[in-house]
Specification:
Blueprint (H helix, E strand, L loop, with lengths): L2 E5 L2 E4 L4 E8 L8 E6 L6 E6 L6 E3 L7 E6 L4 E6 L8 E7 L6 H4 L8 E2 L3 E6 L1
Parallel strand pairs: 2-11
Antiparallel strand pairs: 1-3, 3-8, 4-5, 4-9, 5-6, 7-8, 9-10, 9-11
Length: 128
């Protein structure tokens, strides 16, 4: 069993930066594919970014490519999402997700239903 806890959200202005953290307990993240999703009320959950445990490959949604960076610190058992040049449309609750349950990462990284564990979410609000 893995417990994930996000932190780092907040209220910022457009153009500012935030770094979200997702701390894991119960299992080392060194062998777990991890991802970030976000959700706005009334909208579908949206894939943001993912990182493979096996080869470190990363993927990003087109809407955040070039602005967001996902990384892992295996020693701290934590995944990060560095968010730069934030825009009002980035406002959402951000969730980290882990463990594709053996599914092939490169085919499933953006499918929320494929992840086994989820955090409780952290709110990011970007004002214009």
């Amino acid at each position: 069993q893995v417990q994930l806890e996000e932190s780092g959200g907040g209220l910022v202005q457009a153009g500012d930066s935030l770094r979200l953290s997702c701390a894991a307990s119960g299992r080392t993240l060194s062998t777990v594919d991890m991802a970030w999703f976000r959700h706005c009320p009334g909208q579908e959950r949206e894939f943001v970014s993912a990182i493979s445990w096996s080869d470190g490959s990363t993927y990003y949604a087109n809407s955040v490519k070039g602005r967001f960076t996902i990384s892992k610190d295996n020693a701290k058992n934590t995944v990060y999402l560095q968010m730069n040049s934030l825009k009002p449309e980035d406002t959402a609750v951000y969730y980290c997700a882990g463990d594709l349950r053996g599914a092939y990462f490169h085919h499933n990284y953006n499918k929320g239903s494929a992840y086994n564990y989820w955090g409780q979410g952290t709110q990011v609000t970007v004002s214009s």
